[in-house]
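tool=predict chain=A
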Amino acid sequence: MLLTISTTHRPATDLGFLLHKHPGRVQSFDLSFGRAVVFYPEATEERCTAALALDVDPVGLVRGSSRSGGTLDQYVNDRPYVATSFLSVAIAQVFGTALSGICKSHEPLAASAIPLKATIPAVHCRAGADILRELFEPLGYTVQVTAHPLDVAIFPGESSHTYSLELEGTVRLSDLLSHLYVLIPVLDNDKHYWVGDDEVAKLLRHGEGWLTQHPKREYITSRYLKFQKNLIDAAMEKLREDDPPSEVSDDVADPVEEKIERQLSLHEQRHGTVISVLKSHNARSVVDLGCGEGRLIRELIRDPSFTRIAGTDVSHRVLQIAADRLRLDRMPSIQRDRIQLFRGSLMYRDERIKGFDAAAVVEVIEHLDEPRLAAFERVVFEFARPKVVVITTPNCEYNVRWETLPAGTMRHRDHRFEWTRAQFRDWAEGVASRFGYTVKYLPIGPDDPEVGSPAQMGVFTIA
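tool=predict ok
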């Protein structure tokens, strides 16, 4: 069983500091089920690779277990060779400090995302290659999966369900280790350890910051906890408690913003402009990214030219409100079949938002921390890649026209930033250039000759 982690960060040998394992030494660790060895096949300033080799003792496993009967399959199996829950235990015991993100000698580096590549030569996954991608791609990795079929002459009609797995991305080392620690046991149908309340705590601890927003969180939780309903319910209840607020607050109104915009009816003007743009581009299918409580979706439903409508939001609670307000449970089936609501984050790649003619991102980006915009850009423009993307955001230059808004404050308490027209155009032009789109701009609301309109829109189309 083997795991390698490589980096091209300069100097690449800093990986040794992060893992707390010197590149010039081979280190061995005794574990309850065998032995782990850490070594470095390469260690230069340009590239460094750390390898964790795990030697699982199948005879020792049988002797230490409660199994009886002495059948051959107790000793002859793939446990020593494919990545299983044993690998997670080894990661925790051998790379435990790195897993916690601790590196006193290189604290800024431990807290930084660096280019990393993890390779596992053999992963057993009965669900197939697609589930490997569905587990790791939403976390931002480029995933390469290679199947290793059995020799059909020896095993006719059989499949090994064994794959090589390569993950590549720019992430913190502690995050990479946490992802592997949680997700490798999800693939293991024969976990070697007892699953109890402490495993719920481990799942929540190592899933902190990413599991709540993962589109497969129910699948991950169920399999990690070996389908034990009481434990799954406890974990899911906690995960739902930790649901972040909606990534869009256009539909979850702040009283101050609502008061400011009421006289101009900016909500109506904004939605009307968005729908006009979508219709002008002959969009038949639309996904509302950060749909909030579903105000834009309600307008889209009223127009029969939109034959497929989806809304996604990070908040489970907000989606429930949207479903209630749209009265989905009382809709005629022919109408209900047009609409889909699902939970998802704009920070994670999600196959469900692919295949739409257009995406609407209405008053969303200003609720994201600016350093997270790069992840949002890839999710929408690289992975989902609709023909048309409509993005609206406030124009902070217009704020001086509202007497009720104190100088220097933002329109909404959850806004992370509000851009000038020049700032929005600089960002939009960069996005269009990086991802092969062109962009045009439209004002929303009255266009003041000095400060522009209250809100601004960018319409991105594939070049």
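The chain has two domains: 2-193, 255-462. DSSP finds 17 helices and 14 strands in the chain.
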